[in-house]
Amino acid sequence: MIEKYIPIIDEIGLKYNYPDNIKHLLYVVLPAFVIKYKKEQFIIDCLNNIPIIITGKEDPKIQALYVSYPYLEETIKTKKVIYLNRYNNIPFLQLLDNLVHELNHAINSYKNEIKIHEGYFYLRTGLTKIKYSLKDKKMVEKSKSYVLEEIINSKQTENIINIISNLESDNEVIKNTIYAVKSSINGNYISPAYFNLKYYCKKLLDNKTFLLTLENLRIDGNIDDIEKWFNDIYVEGGYQELINTLYELKDLQNKKGIFIKNKINKLIIKLIKICEEFNKNCNLKA
After folding, report:
1. Where among 185, 207, 227 does a domain terminate?
2. Each residue's pLDDT tens digit, 121-141
3. Can you give the residue range of the structural domain that contains 177?
4. Which of these three, 137, 152, 185, is where a domain ends?
5. Secondary structure of the chain in the HEC alphabet?
6. Fewest CB within 10 angstroms: 130, 232, 235, 259, which?
7. Is the model's pLDDT at 28 over the cut of 70?
8. Number of compact structural domains in the chain
């Protein structure tokens, strides 16, 4: 009975002064996340501790983002926030995608977020690590794995929105929200985020071994185990090859010229080959 989450969302909504529109979306988003991850109290804790802020910027480029701000209080701690930069002038489905996408980043960054090592601390956002100096708290570098993080996150966003479209309720508000989602997606939902890169990685993203293992390691914050696991199935150095190829493709996406186009085509062929080889070596596939 997904109606049981209404008072929980209402209480969180009161705490952060959410408008009804956001609360009504969270009525269906919360149970969908619980169905997806089977971690009810964990998901509720995340929603309770990570505010969603409507900035009023109406930014069409950076429509939404999840940010974790580090600060020092005996040890390194963080303040986590989801920003919705585009809120009023936005299609219903895009608002839902933005909300689910950023909330999914947040939930998959909640455990084992901080690691301190030799004068630096590392802040984890999903598969991504951002390196900071302990001395002045300034960012040193961001890992190239952020591209894979975005691809995985977009794939999971699709999955969660599809779960929402299949929910059932007798509550009028929830029923209307589910109907709005169903009528907007007309079948399986495909997110526009990172569309081309998801397409090139299709064999990898459809691979049950890859997706389920990565999901479990990522939500528990055990991302240091991913590289060895991937290499054991594929080839030594294969995970870094995947990360570098995705990063180069993302970097070249908006550049023009014959040389750039040829380089992009070579990288696409390389990426598809990595995905196919990994898939071939797995027992549990699509």
Report:
1. 185
2. 999 999 999 999 998 888 999
3. 2-185
4. 185
5. CHHHHHHHHHHHHHHHCCCHHHHHHHHHHHHHHHHHHCCHHHHHHHHHHCCEEECCCCCCCCCEEEEEEEEEECEEEEEEEEEECCCCCCCHHHHHHHHHHHHHHHHCCCCCCEEEECCEEEEEECCEEEEEECCCCCEEEECCCHHHHHHHHHHHHHHHHHHHHCCCCCCHHHHHHHHHHHHHHCCCCCCCCCHHHHHHCHHHHCCHHHHHHHHHHHHCCCHHHHHHHHHHHCCCCHHHHHHHHHHHHHHHCCCCCHHHHHHHHHHHHHHHHHHHHHHHHCCCCC
6. 259
7. yes
8. 2
